[in-house]
Amino acid sequence: MHLNTIFKQINRPIRTIYERFFLFKIVRDATHVLAKDLNETFVTLLKSYKILGRILNGTVEEFYKNRSRLWFKKFFVEKELYELVKQDIESLYPKYKDVKVIMTKRGVVIYDNYKKNSFNILLMTIHSGTWIDNKLEKRMCPIKSKLLREEDIATDKIYRNIVLEQNGIWIDNKQSRFICDFNRDMNSAIHTSTSQQWIKKIWKEPPTEAQKKHILDSYKEFYFTLTRLLETYRFNIIFDAHSMRNLPGRPSVSFGTRYVPLFYIPIVKKLAKKFNNLGYEKVRFNYPFKGGYILQFLSTKFPDIFIFSMEINKRLYMDKTEKIIKKRKVKKLSENLLKVFKFEENALKKS
Description:
The chain is of the alpha/beta class. It is 44% helix and 14% strand.
C-alpha cells in the first residue's frame, strides 16, 4: 500500500514528531510484511477498495478439497457457473495444487503462479467463457449454438500451461463475451442486435436498465482488477489470447501488434518464426485482428510494457463444423505453445 493512501485514511493531522515517527514505523513494517507475498498484497488491495464485493482466495488444493461444500456452491451467482469453475479446479488438481487462486462471484478467475525475480507472463483468456446468466438468456433469441461458434472455445486449456508450467499469472473469464465483452470499450461492451454482421438479431428483448448496470459493474470490476494487478506485479510479457474461426484466407496463427512498442517487435517476429519451425506454415501479423481494446487500455496506462494479442485458428483443434473439440489436438497445441514461450523466456533473460 502506498504511503499517500495511508495518509489519506488518517482522520486527524499528525501533531508531534513522535506521532510522525510512529506512523512511519507502522508503514515501514506493514510494507515489509506485504512485500514478502505479492499475492497477499494484491488480495489486500482488492478487499480494501471494496469494489468487487466478496471474493474468494486460496490455492487449487484448498478449493479442490472444498469444491462440494455448500458455501462454495452458493458463492457464485448461478449453479452453472459454479460447475464450470469446479471442473477447472478438478482438472488442475493435483498437478498445480500449490497455484494460488482468486475468484469473483461472476466468474473471473485469477491463477497466481508468480515468482519474484523470475521471468513472468501475464496471460488473459477473456473470451474463453460461455456462461450466460439465465435471466439474460431468456431475453435472447434462440441462437446459443451460433454464439458458441464465435466464442473462443477451449482457449483456457490451450494457453494456460504457458503460465502454469512456468511463472506468471493467468486471468480466465467464464462469462460469455456476448453478455459483457471485456475487449471493447464500456459503451459497446454489451452487444446489441446490430453489433455483429454475421447475425441478424441477438436480443428478443434488450436487457433492462437495471440489468445493463449489473453487467457494466462486472466490466468495471474487471478493469479495476487488471489495473491493480499491473500496479502490484511486474511482467516480462503480457498477452491477450484468443482463437478465430476458420474463414477463407485466415492464417493458422496471427499476432496483433498494433500496441506493441517498437523495441519488442523483433521478439514477436521470433515468436512467429518459432511457430514456423514447429510446422505452422501460415503465421501473420495484424490479420484479421490488430489488437483489441484491452491492449489499447494497457498501452495507455503502461506505455512501456510488452503487450500483444494472439489468435489460434480453430481448424487446429476443432472439427470442420467448429462444434467438436479434438482433445488430442488441444493437448498438442498446448505443448507447442509452451515450447514457443519457453524459448522466449531464455531469450528475454539475456536481453
